[in-house]
Amino acid sequence: MTQPTTSAQMPLSLPPACLGVMGGGQLARMFIQAAHQMGYQTAVLDPDPACPAASLTHHFVHAKYDDALGLKKLAQTSQAVTTEFENVPQSSLEILARSLWVSPPSKAVGISQDRALEKAAITQAGFDVAPYQTLSLRSQVNAQTQNLLPGILKTTRMGYDGKGQQRLNNIEQLQLALDADPDSPKRATYVLEKQLPLLAECSVVIARSFDDQVVHLPVQLNVHRAGILFSTTVIPNWIEQTLCDELILASTQLAKALNYVGVLCVEFFVLEKAQNSTDSKYHWVINEIAPRPHNSAHHSLNSCSVSQFELQVRTLAKLPLTQPTQHSPCLMLNLMGEMWLRGGAQQVEPHWDEILRLPGTHLHLYGKHEARIGRKMGHLNITAPDASKALATFDACCNILGVEPGDHKPLLF
Ligand code: ATP
Ligand code: MG
User: Fold this and answer.
1) What region, left, alpha or beta, does residue 46 occupy, with left being phi > 0 and alpha being psi -120 to 50 degrees?
2) I need a surface site. Which of 1, 221, 320, 390 has the fewest CB within 10 A?
3) pLDDT in tens, 140-159
């Protein structure tokens, strides 16, 4: 038999083949749970032997993401490899792709690692992003910069959950922020983004197969607090249908423009259109992409016929894709470390018994032992026969967990 010569020619992986994943956090944990359910073996590479996926996987490779021997072991154990996060070195995925089917493609992962490259790729595909400028030095502040303030200064690399971001109101604050960079002369590069008046935040998770089948999950309505996802609402007819159609089409077109294969999340900012606008009442821009399953689609584990993790398994194994359908209205609440730290410094387990007494609550904990402020410990999916019941249960869960539920309103124009 002739050996396949490119990654694209690698064969279909049927169970019990071993599927590998770079990174062992909660996204890898939920990926391997989906893979195990379908009869696959799994392998995980992570530098932390106590990572959430380590105790569940068949094979664990304890290595740094760029360790040649570790990559070799992962490649020898697995038939195909994916990644659970965008910050694995692009070169490691390229090394793996020499002998294995790797999805998503390393190039797309490389683009999503760098906000400046990402914005350029999104713009090149024909979509708007928030007005921005790439900056690293005080001397680059110019006449255009003023138009971007108030703005958000984001490190181009290694940002997540709002980390590496500063909200700035004026040029003086911006110059101070650029001066105060402690890494000088190895300075970080930033994008300064105009702070937009958001009407809402939405995201779409799509999956694209090696042979160009594309399926999507329902459009998600997201609420962030302090730059971190707080909740996601996915209720039929909750979001204007024309907006949903536009966002799904844009996500599909973007995946095609990036030659993307795998699960892709596209985050959108929905903005109010100027009062004098004659066409639609809204406008949207793309915030960013994630080349993997996304926190905002965790609802799919309990609300949809196919979860985002099963989609990741299917695209990686080169199995066919079928369009997921939503069977229950759902709200997802992120379970943050602060919910364990309400009594002060001492860590106390929340009263899951009180939560699980409520019909339609689905608890997902990631096996993290130490709770920290801002750390994602798990999530709670709340399903119900209708929107009002789902919302009432969501509010009750927030009360038990000691967080303000906030308002959840439909996005209709
Ligand atoms: P994550 O990886 O969790 O998605 P991140 O660290 O990559 O987050 P962003 O998605 O860039 O960060 O920003 C986090 C949140 O901050 C956004 O979801 C939004 O609520 C707010 N935000 C970011 N940029 C802007 C902007 N230009 N205008 C208004 N709000 C913004
Ligand atoms: Mg984001």
Assistant:
1) beta
2) 1
3) 888 899 999 999 999 999 87
- Is the distance from the beta carbon of residue 376 to the nearest atom of ligand 1 less than 6 Å? no
User: CB neighbours (10 Å) of residue 320?
Assistant: 10
Q: Using a 6 Å cutoff on CB, does residue 161 contact ligand 1?
A: yes
**201 CB near ligand 1 (under 6 Å):** yes
Residue nearest to atom 2 of ligand 1 (CA): 160
131 lines ligand 1 (CB under 6 A): no
CATH number of 198-401: 3.30.470.20
DSSP of 242-254, one letter per residue? Answer: HHHHHHHHHHHHH
* Per-residue confidence (pLDDT) for residue 2, from 0 to 100: 43
Query: Over pLDDT 70: what percentage of the chain?
Result: 95
pLDDT of residue 184: 62
The mean pLDDT value of the chain amounts to 94
Q: Does domain 7-102 have CATH number 3.40.50.20?
A: yes
345 pLDDT more than 80: no
Residue 209, both tokens: 């197969």
Distance 1 CA to ligand 1 centre (A): 50
Q: Is 191 in the pocket of ligand 1 (CB under 6 A)?
A: no
Which ligand is in closest contact with the Cα of 295? 1
Site to substitute for ligand 1 among 224, 225, 287, most atoms within 8 A of C-beta: 287
Query: What are the sequence ranges of the domains in the chain?
Result: 7-102, 131-194, 198-401
